[in-house]
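Exercise 7.
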Amino acid sequence: MTRQLLRHPLQKVDVKLLVCLDALLAERQVSRAAATLGLDQPAMSSALARLRELFGDPLFTRVGQGMVPTPRAIALAAPVRELLRNAELLVQQADRELTGGFTGSFRLVCGADFIESLLLPRLIHELEQHMPRFQLSILPPNTKAVLNQYASGEIDLGIGYLPDVPPALHQAPLFEDEWAVVYRPDHPLFRRGVDAAGYARAVHLQVSPTGIGTYSQLIDKAVAALGLHRSIGLTIANFDAAPPIAAETHLVATLPASVAKAARRRCEIEVKPTPFAIKPLRIFVYWHETTHRSSLHKFVRTVLRQQCSNLG
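Solution. The predicted structure, written as tokens, is:
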């Protein structure tokens, strides 16, 4: 059995034809109507012919150098103008959001707690200047469902580090952070400074925000390249909790330098460069293809990147 396809009444309507009708009603002359829309006269005459066929009515009759609308054309004038006005408002929806009309919650995922501490105060302060009614919701990372969360709109933006970025996600770099070794001042392995041998003998505190070691993999690869291995004594989820633990225990933490330097003001710790090269931690902003062209999303991404350019 052949399935009958249902057609919507508006499928046969070209909005550009309605724009032409609106201009013809205003100008009452083909050449003037064409000029207002930047068209040539033959194009406007062709549009008028299609309009007559669409509505089954002459719409205009020639009188002297001008045209007089028929009763059908006069009846169409107000509805056509209203439809075009609503279409303009629909296209401008994103701009209205950017001028303070956005009242929903913009959902953001931060891949690590230190990113929240570093960026959110700057981001929120800047957004408040432009959109006082703007709301942010910070969601925990969910590595198993992250792509579905982006696609469904549950996540608007993500900030962090992903070693493998799905094709459906766009990305842009925000900032880089070097690594630093953090330990208590009287640690017996580092009385003469931090070297690779002492680092390998230490028991380490590992930070894994999502439980799968995304960030620590960068460290482990650098250690393995030297033929060494780290012994992990404790794994925690928060970078900001690592320095106080290292200050009171034998554990050694390898942390983003921004975290380590900030912690030195409140903890009695030593902060030293790593004794071997580790690939810098590169933090990105991620977003889905579905929001790639949204004016609102573009604005937030631009603000975020501007604030990151001022870090230091």
